[in-house]
Amino acid sequence: MFTFIDENGFFVELSFKKGQFKVSPKHVLVMVNNNGKWLCTIHKRRGVEFPGGKVEPGETLEDAAVREVYEETNVHITDIKWFADYLVHSVEPFCKAVYTGRVEGIDPFIGDYETMGMLWLTTEELLNYPNLSFYMRDDGLKKMLQEVKHHERQW
Prior knowledge:
Blueprint: E1 2-5, E2 11-15, E3 25-34, E4 37-43, E5 47-49, E6 52-54, H1 61-73, E7 75-89, E8 94-106, E9 115-121, H2 123-128, H3 139-154
Parallel strand pairs: 3-8
Antiparallel strand pairs: 1-2, 2-7, 3-4, 3-6, 4-5, 4-9, 7-8
């Protein structure tokens, strides 16, 4: 278990073992690495972040992960694997399931819904990017980037 305080002052728990929290995940975050670069989305208000969002009624977490990545970046992913859960102890606590995936294809970005498209960044670029979303600047991101390398070797 890895714990930290986020930029909003909330206590956050990050676990790389399933089922550690009493709060079930209702949100997803997806980490996709392709040719040494991370897939990020450019959110209009928050800045650059990993794709993700809320699970819709009738959807599985995995379905939501695939849908959110496509809606925000026009990237098709496959080989979805659960990677971590993190629990934010905000006024109303919520849990996000973190997944990894593999790029299957990329369509031209024509949407302009919540995001302004995709951005591919190396780990170094990601850690130093000037316009990151608040949750991409915290200790949890650094820990996930460290752990994903370890988990990818096991997969």
